[in-house]
Amino acid sequence: MRSIQFIFRLGFLFACYFNSGWFIGGNPIFAQTTAGNAVYQFLKLPYSAKATSLGGLNISSIGNDLGLAMTQPALLSTNLDGELQVSVKPYFAGIQQYDLNGANKLKSDWVVGWGVHYMDYGSIAQTDIMGNEYGSINPNEYSIQVGIAKTYREYFHFGTQIKFIQSNYGPFRSNGVAMDVGVRYLTPNGLSQWSILLQNVGTQLKYFQEKEELPLNLILGWSKKLANAPLQFSVTAERLSVWNDNYYDIDFYNVEGYQKPGSLQNVFNHLVVGSQLYIGQSFEIDLGYHFARRFELNLPNQPNSLNGISAGFSFPYKRVQFQYGTGFFQRNSYHHFTLQYALKQKDD
């Protein structure tokens, strides 16, 4: 019970620290938000197929997935030593996402994680105000990150990482730096894990015309494995510093006949839930549900029962683990493929 209280107190301190608007040394933090107007939104995309299949965000799952550790550095562990992960996620209209991640153990059981998160937006025609084409651009964004984690008193795990972010849209270029700080607590029986993450604390270094906000996010997570069944459940709560960041335009809602989101809807729109079913010793089926995604996509005149749902599976073959994940958006879905390879032979 004391450990659980500690986690919630730490989360409260993080929230107070964030909402105060101050950073170390008394310098104010500018350009920080959790709302949808932030720059570098690609930082919120899942790094692996497992993360996609668990709803797009999970910081507490009990396991050894390098993609989840790229979001929550406290998930870096010695079990990931020598792991290399490659992911590809094709979107629509030629948009592609690529991820390359790795982890290595240092002396005294420190673990270093590193990764490249890359978005390729394809080729976009350049036109004048009359619609005449005079060339094309190939916009892209990427982040390069390095993190480090350490176990404290066996059950507490602390991690932090720093990211260099670059955005290129033809002549419009910007870059910035951000930092993530995370803590997780694994119960002595190994069946429950609590996690907290303060994500994307940082600022733009170079910007076009004016400095923009980064997608700062305060996240809490809890995962539970059943002792007598091959199941694990997770609940993740994000954007905890803002009660209601849903889009609401009263004139638009009145014209279209939409109802204003209620208080209960605001609560659920902060939540992502996931489940993992283990079949035998190797095969895993994942399901996820993202409440805010369903709310934003389920327009009254365009409902879809699959909006907000994600699913996937994973299985190992020798040193390789294959993962697949998919998410549903209106009448479309996308596919996420991940290979995690063990560079070092590990004892069974």
Can you walk me through this structure?
It is a single chain. This protein is mainly β and 348 residues long. The two termini are 34 Å apart. 34% of the residues are buried. It contains six helices and 18 strands. The chain is globular. Strand 14 (271-279) and strand 15 (283-290) form a beta hairpin. The longest helix is centred in the first third of the chain and has 19 residues, at 2-20. It has a 14-stranded antiparallel beta barrel. A two-stranded parallel sheet has the order 1-11. Strands 5-6 form a two-stranded antiparallel ribbon.
How do the helices and strands follow one another from N- to C-terminus? Answer: HEHHEEEEEEEEEEEEHHEEHEEE
Q: Estimate the mean pLDDT confidence.
A: 86
Strand order of the largest sheet: 2-3-4-7-8-9-10-12-13-14-15-16-17-18
The major β-sheet equals: 14 strands, antiparallel, barrel
Helicity, in percent? 10-25%
Spans where pLDDT lies below 50 across 5 or more residues: 1-31
Rg over alpha carbons: 21 Å
> How many angstroms separate the termini?
34 Å
Task: Decide which structural class fits the backbone.
Answer: mainly beta
Shape: globular
State the total count of DSSP E strands.
18
**Count, helices:** 6
Strand % is: over 45%
Task: List its traits.
single chain, 348 residues, mainly beta, 14-stranded antiparallel β-barrel, two-stranded parallel ribbon, 6 helices, 18 strands, 46% strand, globular, disordered N terminus
How would you summarize the topology of this molecule?
Blueprint: H1 2-20, E1 32-33, H2 49-53, H3 66-71, E2 83-90, E3 96-105, E4 111-120, E5 124-127, E6 133-137, E7 140-152, E8 156-169, E9 172-186, E10 192-206, E11 214-215, E12 217-225, E13 231-237, H4 250-256, H5 263-268, E14 271-279, E15 283-290, H6 291-297, E16 309-317, E17 320-329, E18 332-342
Parallel strand pairs: 1-11
Antiparallel strand pairs: 2-3, 2-18, 3-4, 4-7, 5-6, 7-8, 8-9, 9-10, 10-12, 12-13, 13-14, 14-15, 15-16, 16-17, 17-18
